[in-house]
Structure formats: C-alpha cells, structure tokens
Task: structure prediction
Amino acid sequence: MRKAARKDVPGINKDVRKRVPRGAAREADAIPPSGELLRYYEAMSGALGPMRWWAARTPFEVIVGAILTQSTAWGNVERAIANLRSARVLTPAAMFRVPTPRLAALVRPSGYFRQKAKKLKAFVRFLETEYRGSLERMFLTPTSELREKLLSVHGIGPETADSILLYAWNHPVFVVDAYTHRIFGRHGITNGKPDYERVRAFIETSIPRQQELFNEYHALIVNTGKNWCRKSAPRCEECPLRPLLPANSPLAISTGIVPLETSLPGSLA
Ligand code: SF4
Result:
C-alpha cells in the first residue's frame, strides 16, 4: 500500500488539532478525547495516502453518481455514466428533456434502473423548479437550507444529500456511511447503531469543520472498510487502525485481539 507524506494530504493543516472545538456537543454514548478522531485520520491517511475524491468531470456528474451508487458497486455506476455521456444526457437540461424510459435504459448497468431513472428525473425537476436549472444558483443556497431541500427530493436520503453537498460543491458536511458505523462501532467510539444524524453531528463537532478534511476522511473510511474492516471477517492484523482498537471495544472483547502498545506512525499526538 502506498505511503504518503503528510504534506501530500490536501488542505490539512499541521496545527489542525489545536482547532478542535472544545466542549462541542458529542455523541452521548461514548466520548473520545479531543483529537482522537484525528488520530484515526492520520493512521488511515498514512497507510492509504491522499484519496482526492470525487473523480468526476462536472458537479452534475457527481450528483448523478451519488444517486446511481445507491445499492451497487462503483464499477456499475461508471458504466451507466459512460452511457449517459455517450448519449449526451449528462447535463441537467438534457436529462430534464430525455424521456424516463430512455433514461432508465441508459442507467441500466447501475441496477434498480427504473427507480434510479425516476430519482434522477426528480432531481432535475427539482433543479428546474427551484433554481431554473442552475446548479450554481442551487449551490449558493446556505448549506443547512439546501440540505433540507435536497432531503425533500424523491430518492435523496441523508448520505446522498451529504455526498452531493460535499463532493459536488465543497459544502462542509460529513458523509456517514455503513463503513463509518462499522469502524467506529467496532472501536467503541459510537454505539454502532446506524443513527445517521447523531453520528454525523458527533463527527462534525469532533474534528475541524474543513471541507478538505471531511472529503478525505470519508474517502479513507470507505477504503479502510473495503480493505480491512470487512463485515464478517475484519482483517485487524493488517489494518492501520489496529493500534487504535481499544482493549475494551466490542470487537477486541469478542475476538480476543490484544491491541498493540505502539504509537501511531505520523500521529499528530
Ligand atoms: S482494526 Fe479491525 S475493527 Fe478496527 S478498523 Fe481495522 S479491521 Fe476494523
């Protein structure tokens, strides 16, 4: 796995820990010490290097990808997006005009294609109605207000809304996903319950509110989940977060794993 120097991580200030808000609201079930979540970030970043998500050509492509990636692998999304690009419907105006059955055929590789075509249509209709079809106008809306509006669109739930806000236009919101619940739950940082809003608020108030940090942190969690923290057989021995697995965490207790005593390479501590 490629190592990355800290200076390679975009937007992360060396003194970032000093700006962790003290006394901010935290999740009630478990309160890690201030800066603890940044140690997780450093460990994952040191092992995986900069992620630089999201690899899309336009903000609209990010939005389309965020909707199509629901319940499918990213490779399927890429095939669907390639179809949309070839058919020249990868703009809000073109997608607004294309008939829904035609759109469904184009996004077929992403699975649940009829439902996803309706979701895409719902979004471009929303964009047309609320912002006269302009993404620029839409993203000028204050973050919390736009988040509420996006959540009212058919097919856009919290994870999709936050992915759109963060990765399409750099709004500082943290994207929580199944890997976040799994990793932090196994480490006893959260109670492991998939309570999206509580976990999001907890993370957003535990690390500096920097768009670049939120972007990288979520991408690192996804990659750590895929590479090591698998659902049925976590590969703790090779995982960069193993030094941070507490002895009294649910997973350590159930598997008998004894955490390492060593400090983190590249830790800010
Ligand atoms: S150390 Fe184990 S439990 Fe922790 S993130 Fe890695 S694989 Fe998951």
